[in-house]
Amino acid sequence: MIDFESVPGFLAARQPGIRVWQDIGPEFKIAASAENPQTSFFGGNTPTVGTPAVGPQGVLNPNLLVNLTGPGGSFFNNANNVSLNQVPDVTVKAAWDPRLGPYHLHIEAWGLYRQFFDRFNFANHTFDTGSFGGHINAELIPKTLDLQVYGAHGALGRFTSSPFPDATVAQDGTILPLTITSAMVGLIWHTLPTLDIYSYAGLEKTDAAFANVGTVPFGYGNPLYNNTGCNVENSPAATCNGNTREVRQITAGFYDTIYQGAYGTVKAGVQYSYNQRLAFVGVGGAPRTDDSIVMSQIRYYPF
Predict the structure, then answer these.
(1) Contact at 8 Å (CB) between 176 and 168?
(2) What whole-number distance in Å separates Cα of residue 91 and Cα of residue 111?
(3) pLDDT tens for the chain, residues 1 to 303
(4) pTM passes above 0.85
(5) Terminal Cα distance for the chain, rounded
(6) 147 near 172, Cβ under 8 Å?
(7) Who is most buried in 135, 164, 189, 199, counting CB within 10 A?
């Protein structure tokens, strides 16, 4: 694909980790990994501080800490904040690769354990989460037409293409995880040895998680948030909280190898996508947007 963020429903992250695996016969494999954890909290990298329960979305207590800014220097980029996770993400996975006559088939299933962490009034808060998902890649026509199907459910915001946050917090520091449901289906047609045509459809959606202090709203997807300005151009940001509920995309494109020889490989492609973003209902309604995007790309591989 040309779009770096990929299609909604395709989950991924680049991060360091340690993985061990075991082959069980020629077709079955199991694996487990411990990977670098991070948590994306809703409300920005640095929570707003001030008098508790004040403001259009509520103001978090100044004694709440969800992350730290790097101090600068080697390996500590002070342009990025780092969440305070105590344990690594742990993934277990099983994959089956049978051969059905001339057809190739790949089936996999996985589970993911994550722990979220914050600190409030000299006390640590943790929340343990479990997520699961799977993937099927099947040849419908050998060496010509491939089918891909993805699905997942759980606290997966950081891995989504949209992207969604992983969690939000109540005014007292209670961690409120956001549950993501994602799905994607795609077809890849190898029309010529040099030309691939693809089409995908995918979605990512989350459940609301919120709490109120009196009439002051906190959390994500709170129906008390102000959306009155979402359909007014150049309206103040405070009048359009517009927490995203669901993102959908349908896309199609092609990649063509236009040169391959002693001087490397040149590939070119064009991709079109139709995108929808739907927000939670707030005061003033539930805003949404529909956008069409066209991307083109030329890649040169010298080796």
Answers:
(1) yes
(2) 6
(3) 888 888 999 999 989 999 999 999 899 999 999 999 999 888 633 333 333 434 445 555 666 777 777 666 666 666 777 788 999 999 999 999 998 888 999 999 999 999 999 888 778 889 999 999 999 999 999 999 999 999 999 999 999 999 999 998 887 788 999 999 999 999 999 999 999 999 999 999 999 998 887 777 888 998 988 899 998 999 887 888 889 999 999 999 999 999 999 999 999 999 999 999 999 999 999 999 999 999 999 999 998
(4) yes
(5) 21
(6) no
(7) 164
